[in-house]
Specification:
The chain is mostly beta strands and about 450 residues long. The protein contains four helices and 36 strands. The strands form nine sheets. It has a six-stranded mixed β-sheet. It has a four-stranded antiparallel β-sheet with strand order 3-36-35-34, with no helix packed on it. The protein has a four-stranded antiparallel β-sheet with strand order 4-5-6-7, with no helix packed on it. Strand 28 and strand 29 form a beta hairpin. The radius of gyration is 21 Å and the shape is globular. It starts with a strand and ends with a strand.
């Protein structure tokens, strides 16, 4: 395994989608090429399909792109806050949110700012792009639709308000009787677009279906707690987890509950409870992680358990990726990157990370990319089950001498010095000075795009 830092950007490669289209056109008889080329020039044709978190409504996390080597920086753009949001690439533009309360639109090739849109709170969701609109949510409790070209607001839907998961004495903090917001509940639900409908969860305990063009509410489904997972949609059903520890299957047209699957509980310190991982769908199965320390595979039709894996207390905040007959995901506590057989749950490989991760893997070719809290983006060879290469963020390099020892381990005890809620929050904020990669990467045209808590959005080749 080798590590890569920033280097000068090379010449931008010809976009993969354009190259692929030229091959198709050149195989067509000459008399038919002109109509096809005219279609190619229509605005938005390449991005005609909605672009969103995990690539598509099923959330498999697989991208049709050459696999980046992580050996050079194409560009980096600095926001005024942390970038927990995962980027979305559509039509030659990268869209991403920041805790500075803005959504940014950047040129895919050069990272130049096209526009930024202000909201009333941090933008910790990942945008979705469809029909000329960019949809995303903010901590201000609104779901926004802005014009993809201009950044002008088209509509906004007000939920009943955002909030984090709360519990008394959460994670063992004192005083044990005080109800506290969870400092590790960092993401918002991200929109998924299917058949002209926006599906999204909210901290107000609801799952919403909104009309894509107008933002009008189609339906709302109430769960028992905060919903910060992102819905997955397939075959007329919406699959989404809640901090009430249930995974729900809902009718996409009406919002009617079809079934619910229940994960583990923790009524002592409320550490091992809730679902923030967004489900992935493949082969009539739903794959989802939970904070109960297990990874779950559930029948998509009935909600019956197919298999589950005990990760020995390790949360799975990240969303899994499904590649052929293998499902892969990282854990937080326990610091693993694991691969299992889709049908049986049998272990394919199990790699150690130096610290926990919330970042969901993106797969290009036979390589998976994901970030860790120490400020690295990693590339894993899925065929060999081994780490290939890692890229270190600027924040990590700047702060490494303070908190990372000679073996690469993060000295967490230097960050978390007291067992109060304030101590947890301070420790977590200190950790994020390492340029943590909580953002989930996206791969397009041989480049991987990801955000960091050092405030940058990176484009690495």
């Amino acid at each position: 395994m080798s590590s890569c830092h920033d280097s000068d950007a090379g010449a931008a490669a010809e976009p993969y989608t354009r190259h692929r289209f030229s091959i198709i056109v050149n195989r067509v008889p000459t008399r038919m090429r002109r109509p096809l080329l005219a279609l190619a020039l229509l605005p938005g044709l390449v991005a005609a399909q909605p672009a969103m978190f995990r690539g598509d409504p099923a959330h498999r996390g697989v991208y049709a792109s050459p696999a980046p080597r992580l050996d050079s920086l194409a560009w980096a753009f600095k926001t005024e806050g942390r970038v927990l949001s995962s980027p979305t690439v559509a039509g030659g533009v990268v869209y991403v949110g920041s805790t500075d309360a803005h959504l940014y639109a950047l040129g895919q090739r050069d990272g130049n700012l096209k526009w930024k849109f202000p909201t009333g709170g941090p933008v910790n969701s990942s945008p979705a792009v469809a029909q000329g609109l960019v949809i995303f949510s903010s901590v201000d409790g609104k779901v926004y639709a802005v014009d993809a070209s201009t950044g002008k607001e088209r509509w906004a839907f007000a939920t009943r308000g955002e909030r984090r998961f709360t519990a008394p004495g959460i994670h063992g903090a004192v005083p044990r009787t005080e109800r506290m917001p969870d400092p590790f509940d960092v993401f918002l639900s991200s929109p998924v677009i299917s058949d002209g409908v926006v599906f999204i969860g909210s901290g107000d305990h609801h799952v919403y279906a909104l009309d894509l063009r107008t933002g009008a509410r189609r339906w709302a489904f109430e769960t028992g707690d905060v919903v910060h997972a992102t819905p997955a949609v397939a075959q007329g059903r919406v699959y989404i987890g809640s901090f009430d520890r249930h995974l729900y299957a809902l009718d996409a047209r009406t919002g009617r509950e079809i079934w619910r699957y229940t994960t583990g509980n923790d009524t002592t310190i409320f550490n091992q409870v809730g679902i923030t991982s967004s489900a992935a769908l493949a082969g009539n199965m739903v794959f989802v992680g939970a904070r109960d320390g297990h990874f779950h595979a559930v029948d998509a039709t009935t909600g019956a358990l197919r298999w589950k894996v005990n990760n020995k207390g390790g949360w799975t905040i990240a969303s899994p990726a499904v590649v052929d007959d293998m499902v892969v995901y990282p854990t937080s506590d326990g610091a693993r990157f694991k691969a299992h057989d889709v049908a049986t749950g049998g272990l394919r490989f199990d790699l150690a990370n130096r610290i926990f991760t919330y970042s969901s893997p993106a797969v290009a070719g036979h390589t998976a990319y994901y970030g860790t809290a120490d400020g690295f983006l990693h590339a894993v060879d899925l065929r060999a089950g081994k780490l290939l290469r890692s890229y270190q963020t600027r924040g990590s390099r700047a702060q490494a001498s303070r908190f990372i020892d000679s073996t690469g381990a993060v000295r967490l005890r230097d960050m978390y010095r007291e067992g109060t809620h304030e101590g947890m929050t301070t420790g977590f904020n200190t950790l994020m000075t390492l340029g943590s990669v909580f953002s989930s990467p996206v791969v397009a045209d041989g480049v991987v795009y990801f955000g960091s808590t050092d405030g940058h959005l990176y484009a690495v080749k």
